[in-house]
Amino acid sequence: MGKFTSVSPSAALQASLGKILAWKADQRGINPLGSSFHGSSGLNINNISGHRAGCATECPGQSFVDIDLQNVRQGVLSLIQSIAPKITSFTPENGSNDVKVFKQIKLTFNLLMDTNSVRNAISFSPADTFVVSFPTISEAVITPVGLWSFNTTYTLKVDTTAKNIYGTPLDGDGNGVGGDPFYLTFSTSQPDNNPPVIVKYFPNGVDVGTYAEMMIVFDEEITNFEQNITLTDGITPSIPLSNLNFKWEGNRGLLTFRSTQLLVGGKNYLLKLKSNISDKVGNKLPQDFDIPFYVPLINLVEGTVFDRFEGISTWEDPLSNVNTTGADTTKTLFSITSEKKRGGVFSGKLEFGFSGNTGGKVYLTKSTGHLLPTGSVNTGVWVFGNLSGNKFGMLFKNSSEQLVEIGTMNFYGWKFFNVPFQNSLNNTEFKGFVVEQIETAEWNSVIYFDNLQFNTSVTGLDDQTPGTPQEFGLVQNYPNPFNPETRISFTLPSSMFVTGKVYDMMGGEVVTLIKK
Question: For residue 215, which of 137, 229, 458, 494 sits 20 to 30 Å off, Cα-Cα?
Answer without folding.
Answer: 458
